[in-house]
Design a protein that fits this description.
This protein has about 150 residues and is an alpha+beta fold. About 50% of the residues lie in helices and about 20% in strands. A 4-stranded antiparallel sheet has the order 1-2-3-4. β3 (about 70-75) and β4 (about 80-85) form a beta hairpin.
């Protein structure tokens, strides 16, 4: 008798738990641009990761479907979804941007050194012109008040 009750409760609980499983990929495909945060929470639940980047809220969802790992993302601006899709990765990394800027800065520095060496007098005249030291400025003379 106890075994049959235990077996029935085990079968019943497994049916209940299997009914609670959802196909996360199907649920994710229901999301669309323009949805509000509350609507996304109702469909997908809480995200695994959130971050704020360039004024946008980014919610990341990671789930497995048929032994395949999916990383999906929803981006919000002012409470509405503006991006729904694969996890967004920048086209180039910060290190690549820094290297590119370093090359550009070095080229500018070399150009200014080259111009200075080509014609030091022209550079001196340019500096005077920029500072305004090449112009005679009018300074009025005053008689002392008696």
């Amino acid at each position: 008798m106890l075994r049959s009750i235990l077996a029935i409760s085990l079968v019943g609980s497994s049916l209940i738990l299997s009914a609670c499983q959802t196909n996360m990929l199907k649920e994710y495909n229901k999301l669309h641009i323009g949805m509000e945060k509350d609507d996304v929470l109702e469909v997908m639940g809480s995200p695994q990761r959130t971050e704020r980047f360039h004024g946008k809220d980014r919610w990341s969802y990671t789930f497995y479907q048929d032994r395949v790992r999916y990383e999906k993302e929803v981006q919000f601006f002012e409470g509405n979804a503006i991006y729904v899709g694969e996890k967004w990765e920048p086209e180039i990394t910060a290190a690549q941007v820094d290297a590119k800027n370093e090359v550009a800065n070095k080229a500018i520095e070399e150009e200014s050194v080259r111009k200075y060496q080509e014609n030091p007098q022209a550079y001196s005249n340019y500096e005077k012109e920029v500072r305004g030291t090449d112009k005679v400025r009018y300074v009025p003379t005053f008689k002392p008040v008696q």
